[in-house]
C-alpha cells in the first residue's frame, strides 16, 4: 500500500501533490489503454482492485510531464471508484442491523486514499484549465471539472466524519475557493451529470457545496455508526432544496446560516447580530425549504405510510427508529441551534467505566467486571472537563469498539463512596484527539438507577429467552419513570413484568419511546 499522501500548497490556494523527478513507465497516460487495463480489474477481489487503482491514480497525479488528456483519464476511473465506494457504503455499519459483512482489512483506508487522489487529480485539471485558452464550448467541461473536484474533497470529509476524525483543515477552504471561482465564471448553476451515479443524477456545483455544508452543520460526530453515509446519501437527492446566496439582511432567521467564504470554520446561525460584520460579502445558506421536506418525511415515517416512503432515498428502511432519529437530528441542526445550558469546568481525574446495559446491570448488581475479560468490560478513562449536564472523557483508542455514539455507560470516580460517585450517561459525540486518544462527550441521565430484569407480559415458556437485563430510572413523583432495555424489546402499549434484585415484582405499561440507538431503547412507563 502507498504511504501517506505528501502534499504541498500552491499560490492558488489549492493543495497539490509534488511531481516525480523521473517519469514512471507504468503511468497510464493513454485513455484507450487505461480503459483496457481497467477492464481486467479483479472485481471479485475489492482489496486488490483498490490497491491497483490507488497506485495507478497516484502515478498519474505525480507524473512529471504534461498530461494533455488528464480529465479524460480521470473519467476512466469512474466505474471502478464507484464500485468501491458502493461496497464501502453498502457495508457501512447501520444501527440495529446485525450480520453486516466484515470489511476486508485495509479496504476502507485504501478507498479513502483513492478519493483523496481523485480530488488531487481534479484540482490539477482545474488549475490547468484556468491557465489555458479554452474554446467557447468548453464551459461544460470546466463545470464538470470543478464539480468533481468539490465532490471528491467533500467525500474526503465524509470518510473522516464517519470515522470520528477531524477532516483536513484545507478541505472546506478549497471547496469554497473552487466555488468562488465557479461563481466568477458563472458556472455554479451549470447543469452537470454526475458520471459516477448509476441513475445519471443531474446536479450542479452549488448543490455539491450545499450538500457538504449541510452535512457539516449536522455535526456528524453526534451521529451513530453508519449514519454519516446515510445522511450523505439522503442529501445527495435533497440538498438542492437548500440555497446558497450572497449575504444580506433577512426578516426570518430560522434555518439560515452564514458561510465564511474563507472556509475558516463551519457555518454559523444567522441572527439579529449578523449585520455589520462583513456579512454582505459572505454566503447565506438557507435550509428552510429543506427543513420542510425533512419534516414531511419524518411525518411519513411516523404514520408508516410505506407506499410514500419509497421516495426517501438514503435512509435505512429496515431500521425506521434510527432513520427517524436522524431526521429529527437534521431538523434540530438546520432549524434552531440550542445554546449550551451548562458551563464546562476543566477537571482532571481518573475514571473507571463499564459500557452497555449487560455490564452496567452486572456492576449495579454487585458484580465485578474484570479488565481483559470477555468484552473488556472494565475501562480506565481520564476526565477532561465536567458540567452539570455531562462530562468529557479521554479513552484509549483501543476502546473505540465499546465507546460509541449512542452507547450507555456507567462512570465511577476515584474518590468517595461508590454509590455517591457513580453516574449513568449516554455517549453523545466522539472525536479523535490530538494525542491519539478517543474523546467522548457523555450526557448524564438523572435519577435513581436500579438493575432489573423485564419480561414482556403474556410470554411464557423459557424464561431465560424472554427475560432481559434492563435498567429502571426513577426520576421523582412528578416525572414518569424510564426503562433502558436492549434493542427490539420495546413495543408500544405493552405490559412488562419487572423484577428487581431485591425480589420485588411489579407490572408496568410502556409509554412513549424517548430514544433508540443501536445499543438500547429508552421509554417511559407507568405502573399498571
Task: Explain how this protein is built.
- The protein has helices at 31-39, 46-61, 70-76, 78-90, 107-130, 139-162, 169-184, 205-217, 227-238, 288-303, 306-309, 320-335, 357-364, 418-421, 463-466; strands spanning 8-9, 15-16, 192-193, 202-203, 243-246, 256-259, 268-269, 283-286, 345-355, 378-386, 390-395, 408-413, 422-432, 438-444, 448-456, 468-474, 481-485, 495-500, 505-516, 521-527.
- With 528 residues, it is of the alpha+beta class.
- Helix 8 (205-217) packs antiparallel against helix 9 (227-238).
DSSP strand tally: 20
Distance between the termini: 62 Å
Which shape, going by the Cα principal axes? Answer: elongated
| Spatial order of the strands forming the largest sheet | 9-10-11-14-13-12
Largest sheet: 6 strands, antiparallel, barrel
Q: What is the radius of gyration computed over CA atoms, rounded to a whole number of angstroms?
A: 26 Å
Protein structure class? alpha+beta
Portion of residues within helices: 25-40%
Kindly estimate the percentage of residues that lie in beta strands according to DSSP: 15-25%
Residue stretches low in confidence (pLDDT < 50, at least 5 long) are 1-11, 94-100, 372-376, 416-420
Provide mean pLDDT, rounded: 82
| Count of DSSP-assigned helices | 15
Amino acid at each position: 500500500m502507498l504511504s501517506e499522501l505528501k502534499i504541498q500548497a500552491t499560490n492558488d490556494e489549492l493543495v497539490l501533490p509534488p511531481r516525480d523527478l523521473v517519469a514512471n513507465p507504468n503511468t497510464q497516460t493513454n485513455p484507450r489503454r487505461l480503459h483496457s487495463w481497467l477492464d481486467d480489474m479483479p472485481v471479485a477481489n475489492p482489496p486488490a482492485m483498490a490497491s491497483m487503482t490507488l497506485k495507478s491514480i497516484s502515478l498519474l497525479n505525480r507524473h512529471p510531464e504534461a498530461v494533455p488528456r488528464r480529465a479524460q483519464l480521470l473519467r476512466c476511473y469512474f466505474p471502478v471508484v464507484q464500485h468501491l465506494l458502493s461496497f464501502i457504503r453498502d457495508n457501512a455499519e447501520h444501527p440495529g442491523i446485525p450480520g453486516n459483512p466484515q470489511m476486508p482489512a485495509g479496504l476502507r483506508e485504501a478507498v479513502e486514499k483513492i478519493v483523496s487522489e481523485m480530488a488531487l487529480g481534479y484540482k490539477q485539471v482545474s488549475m490547468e484549465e484556468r491557465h489555458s485558452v479554452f474554446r467557447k464550448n468548453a464551459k461544460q467541461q470546466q463545470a464538470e471539472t470543478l464539480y468533481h473536484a468539490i465532490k471528491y474533497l467533500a467525500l474526503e470529509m465524509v470518510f473522516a466524519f464517519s470515522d470520528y476524525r477531524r477532516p483536513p483543515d484545507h478541505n472546506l477552504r478549497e471547496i469554497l475557493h473552487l466555488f468562488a471561482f465557479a461563481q466568477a465564471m458563472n458556472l455554479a448553476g451549470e447543469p452537470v451529470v454526475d458520471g459516477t451515479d448509476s441513475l445519471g443524477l443531474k446536479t450542479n456545483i452549488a448543490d455539491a457545496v450545499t450538500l457538504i455544508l449541510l452535512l457539516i452543520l449536522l455535526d456528524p460526530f453526534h451521529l451513530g455508526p453508519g449514519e454519516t453515509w446515510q445522511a450523505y446519501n439522503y442529501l445527495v437527492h435533497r440538498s438542492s432544496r437548500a440555497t446558497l446566496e450572497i449575504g444580506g439582511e433577512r426578516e426570518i432567521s430560522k434555518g439560515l446560516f452564514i458561510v465564511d467564504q474563507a472556509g475558516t470554520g463551519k457555518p454559523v446561525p444567522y441572527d439579529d447580530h449578523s449585520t455589520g460584520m462583513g456579512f454582505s460579502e459572505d454566503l447565506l445558506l438557507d435550509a428552510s425549504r429543506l427543513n420542510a421536506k425533512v419534516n414531511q418525511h419524518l411525518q411519513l415515517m411516523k404514520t408508516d405510510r410505506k407506499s410514500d416512503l419509497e421516495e426517501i432515498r438514503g435512509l435505512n428502511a429496515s431500521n425506521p427508529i434510527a432513520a427517524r432519529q436522524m431526521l429529527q437530528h437534521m431538523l434540530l441542526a438546520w432549524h434552531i441551534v440550542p445554546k449550551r445550558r451548562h458551563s464546562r469546568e476543566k477537571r482532571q481525574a481518573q475514571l473507571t467505566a463499564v459500557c452497555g446495559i449487560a455490564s452496567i446491570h452486572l456492576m449495579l448488581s454487585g458484580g465485578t467486571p474484570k479488565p481483559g475479560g470477555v468484552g473488556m468490560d472494565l475501562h480506565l478513562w481520564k476526565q477532561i472537563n465536567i458540567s452539570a449536564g455531562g462530562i468529557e472523557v479521554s479513552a484509549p483508542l483501543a476502546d473505540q469498539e465499546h465507546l460509541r455514539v449512542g452507547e450507555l455507560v456507567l462512570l465511577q470516580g476515584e474518590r468517595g463512596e461508590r454509590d455517591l460517585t457513580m453516574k449513568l450517561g449516554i455517549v453523545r459525540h466522539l472525536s479523535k484527539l490530538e494525542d491519539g486518544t478517543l474523546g467522548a462527550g457523555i450526557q448524564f441521565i438523572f435519577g435513581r438507577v436500579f438493575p432489573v430484569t423485564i419480561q414482556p407480559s403474556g410470554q411464557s415458556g423459557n424464561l431465560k429467552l424472554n427475560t432481559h437485563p434492563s435498567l429502571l430510572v426513577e426520576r421523582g413523583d412528578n416525572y414518569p419513570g424510564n426503562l433502558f432495555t436492549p434493542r427490539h424489546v420495546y413495543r408500544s402499549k405493552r405490559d412488562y413484568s419487572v423484577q428487581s434484585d431485591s425480589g420485588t415484582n411489579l407490572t408496568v405499561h410502556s409509554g412513549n419511546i424517548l430514544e433508540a440507538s443501536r445499543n438500547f431503547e429508552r421509554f417511559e412507563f407507568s405502573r399498571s
